[in-house]
């Protein structure tokens, strides 16, 4: 462990190690993606998904090692124990930082299949990572303003089609689909602008989640409900991670056993859509309360 080193040195070390890890893992994934396009036969597709699974596990292991090397993190993990499965899963989570993605790998420890998440369209241009994510079949969504959607309602269908394609691949080749339901990383400024009714969360955006659950909610092995809180790093957690300055990570994991009112025809059933939206808002109220409890727990730890 080298977390005692000065922040600039740790920043340099982390940038080099994480970049090498991404390049080494992303390169074969991209090459396999090209093979998949050129030779789209079932045995080859299955072989590629098999290799992708182990490349992903290697990426997770390497990230855990890098984070453990450069950060002295105390993990406060509560809730349900994570089972080991090779079947498809879903993770519903709040979104605080890019660090969330790395921490999910640390917490789930490769016990679930390859993680895929809804990404903003412009992230596809990140060197190596963007193209690797595209090759893995992650859904890229483009956020449109209300005025754009009113002017051209067909734009909404593009994201829905991307979600459906990702869900189809998720079932055919076991993966874990992560949905950061807020659609953006939480900041107090964004929360104020969105006029959020929650103390620690942005309002949930229900479309992609509603479509995904409607498509595959009854066919996944587990649906996990994640709640993150970083008490010492609530502004720039990812940068702090690179600097070796993340000290505490709180996460609550709930396996959702009761999905009543969450699985249905979101696109065509207006009554279900309304009830689904209310259910997700209730879920977000519960998540907000969980974060308040985490804050109280952290304050108790600080007083000791």
Walk me through the structure:
It contains 10 helices and 8 strands. The chain has a 6-stranded mixed sheet, with helices on both faces. With 304 residues, the chain is α/β, with parallel strands linked by helices. The model has no long low-confidence stretch (mean pLDDT 87). β4 (119-120), α4 (129-135) and β5 form a beta-alpha-beta unit.
Describe how the helices and strands are arranged.
Elements: H1 7-38, H2 42-70, E1 74-79, E2 89-93, H3 99-108, E3 115-117, E4 119-120, H4 129-135, E5 140-141, H5 146-151, H6 154-172, E6 176-180, H7 188-194, H8 207-216, E7 222-229, H9 237-242, E8 248-255, H10 270-303
Parallel strand pairs: 1-8, 2-6, 2-7, 3-6, 4-5
Antiparallel strand pairs: 7-8
Helix pairs in contact: 1-2, 1-4, 2-3, 6-8
Short description:
This protein is of the alpha/beta class and 304 residues long. It has helices at 7-38, 42-70, 99-108, 129-135, 146-151, 154-172, 188-194, 207-216, 237-242, 270-303; strands at 74-79, 89-93, 115-117, 119-120, 140-141, 176-180, 222-229, 248-255.
Structural class based on helices, strands and sheet pairing = alpha/beta
Strand percentage, roughly?
Answer: 5-15%
Question: Strands of the largest sheet, in order across it?
Answer: 1-8-7-2-6-3
**CA-to-CA gap between the ends?**
25 Å
Number of helices: 10
The gross shape turns out to be globular
Taking all Cα atoms into account, the compactness measure Rg is: 19 Å
The helix content, as a percent range, equals 40-55%
Main sheet record: 6 strands, mixed
Instruction: Output mean pLDDT.
Output: 87
């Amino acid at each position: 462990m080298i977390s005692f080193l000065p922040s600039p040195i740790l920043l340099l070390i982390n940038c080099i190690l994480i970049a090498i890890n991404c390049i080494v893992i992303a390169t074969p994934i991209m090459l396999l993606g090209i093979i998949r396009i050129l030779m789209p036969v079932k045995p080859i597709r299955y072989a590629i998904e098999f290799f992708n699974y182990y490349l992903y596990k290697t990426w997770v292991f390497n990230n855990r090692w890098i984070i453990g090397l450069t950060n002295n993190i105390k993990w406060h993990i509560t809730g349900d124990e994570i089972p080991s499965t090779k079947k498809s899963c879903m993770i519903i989570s709040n979104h605080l930082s890019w660090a969330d993605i790395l921490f999910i790998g640390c917490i789930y420890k490769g016990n679930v299949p390859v993680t895929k998440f809804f990404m903003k369209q412009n992230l596809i241009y990140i060197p190596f990572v963007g193209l690797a994510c595209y090759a893995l079949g992650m859904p890229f969504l483009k956020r449109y303003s209300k005025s754009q959607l009113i002017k051209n309602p067909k734009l909404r269908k593009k994201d829905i089609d991307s979600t459906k394609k990702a869900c189809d691949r998720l079932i055919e080749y076991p993966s874990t689909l992560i949905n950061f339901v807020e659609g953006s990383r939480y900041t107090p400024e964004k929360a104020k602008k969105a006029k959020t009714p929650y103390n620690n969360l942005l309002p949930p955006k229900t479309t992609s989640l509603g479509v995904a659950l409607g498509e595959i909610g009854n066919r996944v092995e587990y649906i996990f409900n994640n709640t993150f809180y970083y008490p010492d790093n609530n502004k720039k957690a990812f940068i702090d991670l690179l600097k070796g300055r993340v000290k505490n990570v709180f996460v609550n994991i709930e396996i959702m056993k009761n999905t009543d009112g969450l699985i249905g025809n979101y696109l065509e059933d207006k009554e279900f859509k309304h009830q689904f939206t209310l259910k997700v808002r209730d879920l977000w109220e519960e998540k907000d309360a969980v974060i308040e409890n985490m804050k109280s727990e952290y304050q108790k730890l600080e007083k000791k």
